[in-house]
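Quick question, first post here. What does this chain look like in 3D?
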Amino acid sequence: MIENNQNQSETSRDQMLSGSAWMTAGSIFSRFLGAVYIIPWGIWFGQYFFRANALYGLGYNIYSFFLIAAIAGIPSAIAKQVAHYNALNEYGVGVRLYKRGLVLAVATGVICALILYFGAPLIDGGNPYVIPVLHSLAWAILIIPTMSLTRGYFQGYQQMAPSAISQFIEQLARVAYMLITAFIMMRLLHGSWVNAVSQSTFAAFVGAVAGLATLGVYYLRRREDFQYLVQNSNNEIHVEAKQLYQEIISQAVPFIVLGAGITIFMLIDQFTFFKIMRMATDYNYATLSDLYAMFAVNSNKLITISLASALAITAVPMLSEALTRGDDEEIRKQNSNVLALFMFVMIPAALGMAAIAGPLNRVFYGTNQQALGANILTFSSIISIPMGMFVVISAVMQGLSQNKRAVKFFAIGTVVKFVLQWPCTYFLGSFGPLLSTGIGLTVANWLILRYLNRHFGFKKNMLDIGFRKITKYSLLMYVAALLTVYGLNFVVQLVGNPLGRVISLIVTLAAVAVGGLIYIYLALKSRIADMILGPRSDKLRRLLNIQ
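> Answer (accepted):
Ran it through. Tokens below.
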């Protein structure tokens, strides 16, 4: 029995690592494309770059909220419920869940798209430029719920590759359309920058079509495997259509609130920042747009919350399976593995981003207000830790069917954010909304972790040792990367301009290499990586000749 439990735990860890690897790879490549495009895109927009980026962000925040409402938490709910029935060898019920969910996804997509399109003048925040942007984004809402639902179905089978690859194809098509239309409209036709931004946001629809087509290909390739599993199911559970809809909706509603958590905080910033800053300063709209773009759009394209999302997507179906089996020890191990993997990836990623914020900000956004932009990116990098933590542990709560309690804790954090928003923004400007977000999510995280510890438990010794070592090694990596940045800037300054894009890129890559190698070496040398990666660490040590 003990051996079986150990094998089950090893299998679950391997599944989590494999799934997280696929989802992380998809997120990293998609994030890379989503960040790199900004360089030519910004050059082609010229003097309108910051305003165009701010308008893009204003439209996208509203769109993100409607998109989450359209998706309605159904994909994550489907992934969780499909994993639940698969664990019972009732694959046929999972297929019926997917089909019923598809009906809901199409319906919510159409309804939300219509509301966004025709309601745009009512939710533009008093900025008429936002209206055409919202009109262009409404088309994507017709497609994305179906695409996300299909990803959730694959995830319920622990098949993360289709989701990751379709995510990359979606982003590739979106970025290609954005760049082509931006170049044509701004450089060849010398058209309106507002219309060019509208085409850039319409790219979300183009990407969604490409992503859905990719999933369709994967489904056709694996259709026989799915049919075999259905034919060899126990077929002892019969669930009525009405009950299927009730299961989907009851699971989906909390996913809406928690899935929209970060977006809700961003919308609070969007609808309060300009008002508060007009009270605190005499800045004109163009200046406020630049400031908003720096903290709400520019930095968000670079920080690494997507890494946490990859872990969250992997954790939900696995915890649901363990809960279905009633395996309390496995749940405790899974909770610990999720947190340990989060710390192992997110803490060094955030501190590393903070170390290279100066040259990285210049690579993507040039030298316009580069000092302020770099400081905001540094602060955003630190705030990404509680943001990422919320994404992960709220998903853990959902996987353990603690949905309502998770929503309650998020609501408390949101109240904290509201209370602090005005004083933080009034006195700290662009840093204020980030600080209030960090504090609000830290409160929500503390409440969730306390509940998980009391009712499900963690392997505390493992997490305590892991946190202390990971934090120490991450700080050493941060210092090494920062010294590399300052050292190379000093050397370059003796012979030329250290603020150019090419030089900044070289400095960034050098600092990443130095910091990354130090962190990897220390994690492998100290065996802390073994806790996260298992036997894979031995292979890496032999490969890198680390004793």
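Residues 193-231 form the longest helix (39 residues).
The two ends are 34 Å apart (CA to CA).
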